[in-house]
Every structure is written in C-alpha cells, then in structure tokens.
Write a structure and sequence with these properties.
Two copies of one chain form a homodimer. Chain A has two domains: 4-31 and 293-395, Aspartate Aminotransferase, domain 1, CATH 3.90.1150.10; 46-289, Aspartate Aminotransferase, domain 2 (3-Layer(aba) Sandwich), CATH 3.40.640. The first copy, chain A, is 37% helix and 14% strand. Chain A has 14 helices and 15 strands.
Amino acid sequence: MLDRAYFERLDAEDPLAPTVARFRLPEGVVYLDGNSLGPLPAHVPDVVADVVERQWGEGLVTSWNRHAWWTLASRVGDKLAPVIGVPLGTVSVGDSTTIALYKAVGAALGLRPERSVILTDSGNFPTDLYALGSLARTVGTELVVAEPEEVAARIDSTIAVLSLTHVDYRTGRRHDMAALTESAQAAGAVVVWDLCHSAGALRLDLTAADFAVGCGYKYLNGGPGAPAYLYVHPQHQGIIQNPISGWWAHARPFAMEQDFTPAAGRERMQVGTQPILSLAAFDAALDVFSGIATAALEEKARRLTSDFIRLVDERLEGFEVITPRRAGERGSHVSLAHPEASAIMAALVSAGVIGDVRPPNLLRFGFAPAFQRHVDVWEAVDVIETVMDEGQWREAEVPAGPVT
Amino acid sequence: MLDRAYFERLDAEDPLAPTVARFRLPEGVVYLDGNSLGPLPAHVPDVVADVVERQWGEGLVTSWNRHAWWTLASRVGDKLAPVIGVPLGTVSVGDSTTIALYKAVGAALGLRPERSVILTDSGNFPTDLYALGSLARTVGTELVVAEPEEVAARIDSTIAVLSLTHVDYRTGRRHDMAALTESAQAAGAVVVWDLCHSAGALRLDLTAADFAVGCGYKYLNGGPGAPAYLYVHPQHQGIIQNPISGWWAHARPFAMEQDFTPAAGRERMQVGTQPILSLAAFDAALDVFSGIATAALEEKARRLTSDFIRLVDERLEGFEVITPRRAGERGSHVSLAHPEASAIMAALVSAGVIGDVRPPNLLRFGFAPAFQRHVDVWEAVDVIETVMDEGQWREAEVPAGPVT
C-alpha cells in the first residue's frame, strides 16, 4: 500500500540520498519542475562568488590563463560525458541549445551532401523545429515533420539527417533511441539527438549516435540559461564542418590568423567566447553527478514516476495521465491533461507544489532523481487532492504568460 | 610639461571621477587591458549573489516571471542603447559576438537577395573573418577581404553587405564610420558594424547604420564572456529573417506553436535561452554608464591615449607607435611594436602593469575612460621605462599561449 510511510522508507533506503542532500530547496516547497529549471546545489553560490570576486575582480584578464577559463568549456564537457554516456573528449559546451542543434544538424548535413531531407517529428520542442526550419531554408534542404509514431516508417534513403528529441517535452513519451538510431543509420542517415529532457534523469548510451545536444539547466541543475552541450561521435570529429566558424574553433586561436583552420577535436564545434559566470556555475553544479551511474538515476526516476501515476489513479479524478504507463517508454516527467490546467497549476504553486503547464491543457510534473525525495510524490498528490476538493483553483489568479 | 602632477590634476578635475570610483581594482595594479576584459564594478558581486541565492535558489522556476528573466535581455539592450547611440527598443542581447555577427550579416544578406558579395577587411578581428567565411560558404556568397585602406575604393553595386569592425583590434586604427556607411548605402549595400573595440570608450552615432554587434566584456565591463548585443535599424526590424530561428524570437514563444512566426521587434534576432547569471552581471555593470554622454567618454579617451603616446615618444626607445597619431583616427587603445613584445609584456605584468600582446610583435595598452585614472598613464610609462632600463624583460617567463 502506498502510504506516507512507504515513501519515507524509500527515502531512507535511497542510494542517491547523499546527492539529494547537496541541494538547497526552500522550506515548504515540493519542487516538481526540475525538468524545467533544476534547483541550486548548495555549494554553487560560493563557487560563483569566487569566480566573480577573486577570479574576475582580482585576477582580471590574467584569469583566462591563471584560472584556465580558456579550457573551462572542455572541462565541463568532460564532466558531462559520463552523464550522457559518451567518452571523454567528445563534448563541447557553450551557446544555447537552439544554436547547438543548428550547428550539429548543419555539420551532419555536410556529411551527406548528396541527400536533402531532414526528418524530425511534431513532438519535438518548438525551438528545435524552428531551428531546423531556418537551417533547411538557409542551406536549401527539405524539412519533413512526421508524427512521432510515424518516424520509424518514414526513414528511407532520402534522409540526410534524423533529428529527434529523446523525451517529448509535453507528453513525456520516450523515443526508442537505440532502434531509431540503428534504423536511420542503416538507411544511411546521420542521427542527432536532443537530450534536453533526458540527461541527468535517465540511463543514456549514445555510443551509436552521431551527434547529441542538450541544455544545462533542467535535470543537470546548471542554473538559469546554463550553456548547452554538443556531442560529436569521435569518427566525425576531424572531418565535420561547423556551419558557424569562430575563433574558439580554430586550431590556433591565439595566432590570430586570417584564415580559418579548424581544431582537430571537439573544440571544432565551439564558436565564440562563452559566458564564464554561467559556465562556472554549470561546472560546479555537475559535481553532484560525480560517481553516480546513470542507471541509478533511471531506476529512481521509474520508481518516482510509477508511484505518482499510481497515486493519481487512486486518488485524483478528472485528470488524464497522458504519459506512457510503461516506464521504459517515458522520461522522468508525468503530464496530466485537465481542461483547467492553468488555474489548477496556479493554485498548486500557491500551495507550494511547483510544476508547470504546457498548452493547451497539460500539467507537467517533473521527478528529478538527483534531488527529489520520494515523499515529494506523496505530498504533491496530497496537495493536488486538497486543491481540487476545496476548489481553491477556482479562485486562482492565472497569469497571462506562463504560470511558472 | 607632462609630470605626475599634471596627471593628478587631470584626475582631480575628471568629470568621470564618480564613475572611476565605482570600480574595484586590486592594489598595485595599473590595468591597461579594459579593452580585453573590463574590471569588476564594485556593486556587481552583490547583484550576482542575489540572482544565484534568492532568485534561482529560492524563487526557482517562478523567477522567470517574478524576476522578469524573460525580458532581461531586452532590458539590457535598452541600457546599452544610449551607450552605442541608438534608440530604445532596437538592441537585443545574447549569444557570443561571433554568433551575433553571423545572425546580423545573415539577415542583412536577406535584404539584398539579388547581390552576392560580402565585403570586409583584413584588419577585422579573426573570428569575424571566420564567421563571414562560414556564412558565405553556407549561403553561397562571395567574401571579399580588402586591405583596410582599400575598403572605400572597393565599394560598388555588387556588394550586398559591408561588414567592418570600427576599431582595429591590433593597430587601434578607427574606420570613418559615417563616411563608409554613407558610401556603402549609396551603392545599395547594407552595413554591419562590429563595435567590440569602440562601445563604452568612444562617442558613437549609429543612426545611419543598418546593423551593429559587439561584446559585453571589454569597455562595457560586463564580465568574462558577457553576452553580445545586436542592433537592428528600426526600418529593418519587421522585415528581416534571422538565419537561426529559435523560440525566443517567436511572436508567441509560450504558445509553443509548431510553426515559426517571428516577433515584430528586436526580439526577432534572439535565438534560445540566455545565460541569466552572466546576463545579470552585464545588466548590473552597465549601470556605471547611466547618465554619461559618450562624448565625455571619447574626450577622456583622447586625452589618455594622446598623453600616453607623448610620454612614449619622450621617454621610451625601441618602441614604434603603430596606432594613428591623430586622435580622431584611433580608438581607445595604443599599440607599440617591439620585436620582444611577449617578453616585455610578461615582465610588465609581473611589475603590475597589465596590457596584452597581439602577434607577432604588438604590445597593446587599453585606456578605458570609465575606470582609468589619468595617473595610470604616468605610472605605466614609468614602469615600462624601468623594465626596459633594468632589462627585467630578458628574464621574463613567456607562456606558450597568450601572455595575459
């Protein structure tokens, strides 16, 4: 039986408890939006203050050498590598996810110059669709947007690049990465995965993938707008062309040469100078994943989301669970459809349960294994039940823009 | 006569003295590299700490609304507008300068679809040349790299876009922005200026320019890797296509629509989520320019650079001033050629005078009117003279990479 004691027992036995303890969360808040903005690891403020006051304030320009700001992006990439299941030396960090995707797919297209179709799906995050659309327009390629369940059938020898997001930001549906990668590559396509709603919460094995991108600020807790990352399979590193060449991608950036000679390694996918304060926060935040197997993250994510779905089924009325009920087919958030989603979420936030809303009618609840307590599941459903029973949501003030 | 008392008198009479007092500089350092990384304004650490601990740590995802992170980039743009001499509502902030340039020139090319030449010069900063090269390759346009003094003569009716950096990062030579803009536009070209080595130090009037970009971390003191800015003339705002479309450029980003509809205003040139910590530092740092006329910055810059050149002429041997001697033809840094530039700069940094080196043989000394004391000029030349007389530079350890 799922009672409070059950969740407290899970927390007491949680092998990730030492990781959970590294986060700072406000009293009285059940935070179920780590899939949108991860919370603050407790050690990060001191790191950022040191970078601002000592490195920038006292070291001034000499900190580019003395504190190795030049290589910070690559060091962050190496911290990320085990979290996304790729080898060291393959991940660069910087820019926004949208730009990382533009670069990755642009470089991928260059590997298949004889083909002219980018395939994606309608469940992709809007910015991915927009970036792919503008890239297709710029280089004169066709963009095909299939329904998520039709992607596999749409793969054929015309496809240059298959670009998908692993976990659907709305429904939580997870693509079968291994199967789609294999079938696309068998058809001669290059595969680019967006891991925004996976990395830091799921077991990931990108061994077969050609490229991957993702953001730093969701399950990775890198801070608001933390820079993005970009993985390139080692076999492509030395031959791809970055569509946006900048001096950070040059083989000898400080030689200040007039002609562009690309770096041999993952630096080739960099562009310009990166925001060091945000990058340093991301770097520090990643320490919470040190030594943690991504299988342990996924195991906890499955437990959290399964228990939540079960409690929703048992105790709530009027909500439709639209996230797949098979754990292997979903990511680490659960979406509930309800016609009054925005008003309900506004009331929940007032009551201390923070999730978010995606149009037109979805309440999203993220369960981030790194900082979530199992008892959060119990408390969240308790509060949802109360808010619905007492009708608090009917008086909730719904902002014009996003609820959270 | 230029003695120490003369410089102390200038400092005592400096109308920018209250601005100078807002910066925190280490004891014993004469900082002449604000043209590479501006120093820390004293109030910035508290602002950043508040964003990290209270806004991110306590507000969590609700801070996107509560602390208006969604509009921070535009508010930073409006703080910047008077500093670069453009109207409010025309500047977006985000990404790196290289990406800002790629977007601006890409959008500019779209305004001249019947033309196919981008004109730039060999004095441009390398990353600008690389970005222009990759853009030209991607869209099938020709990139012409003229010598700086031949740009004017090279302008003709084949040119789609003229893309230049206002002040040469090596020599300090300043292009005649008004004349080149006028002649390029008369020939039907669109003009894109890079203000990296101008903004925050010079009087700027971009009224006639079509686009401008620049970085936040030099004379604008926004912190290491602070985001870039992008100005679009109001007449182009509603008609241009951003070559990298992302959700922050959408007319209704939170509607999460599948199709891209560009925002009407300067937001159209945004891409993805911006690094809020770095952006907040930049935002706060710009407060030091509040109420300051850029003419006052340029007047002080001319005095600082003129006095430095005069002292170099009077007191130093073996250095060639390669920066134009007419104040109106240079920016706010002075470059001295010397065959032992790297060793000399290494010795200067050890002695507390921080400038930098550009290959193969240039010592660069930046004079940033916002924080520079006039007496810095005197002290710097004193130290250079001593280092040369005593031969300290002969024993200096020169790093393999950049000296500073």
